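Before our next group meeting I need something from you. Please put the record directly below this note.
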Amino acid sequence: MQAPHKEHLYKLLVIGDLGVGKTSIIKRYVHQNFSSHYRATIGVDFALKVLHWDPETVVRLQLWDIAGQERFGNMTRVYYREAMGAFIVFDVTRPATFEAVAKWKNDLDSKLTLPNGKPVSVVLLANKCDQGKDVLMNNGLKMDQFCKEHGFVGWFETSAKLCYGGSEEVLKQFRCLTIPPINQITRTGNGFLEVLTLERREA
């Protein structure tokens, strides 16, 4: 007898300042391609990634690519609605984008909570590490402390250009948002998935 087929849908936000590489990360993960021709996202864009989590479970990741300037507008509350987790991205070669991370996190926390009233899980992505590896080399402990102080579940280095932090790494990041195993995550009364437990970045 065939095992029951289970499907889960997660809406995940990808946010951060203009030009940090949010769209490139999503395109690399979903479509396995990269373009050096930069075009700013206007408003919001969407992508869907289907994961065959195990033989009985399919996970659909609905990735919302939100324009960097949207934090200053009035639409983020609408865009954030019903999301179950988020990635905040900064560019390791542009310190100002890291300084803006806390502002993005505060904006997110002020506008979005899980159905149980708790904050959503958020992972910090240090993008363009192929260009600024030395920036993070001696700052791992500082990054860990920053994540602890600001309520991130962890952080990862990524490079959409070199596919560093590619599909396997993104899956690892996603697992940070969905520990325990997905079949232990329960549905709440209004149909949203509730993240029960968080896991910090591995040392």
Confidence is low (pLDDT under 50) at residues 178-203. The helical segments are 22-31, 76-80, 95-99, 101-111, 133-137, 140-150, 167-177. The chain has one domain: 6-184. Residues 31 and 82 are 25 Å apart (CA to CA).
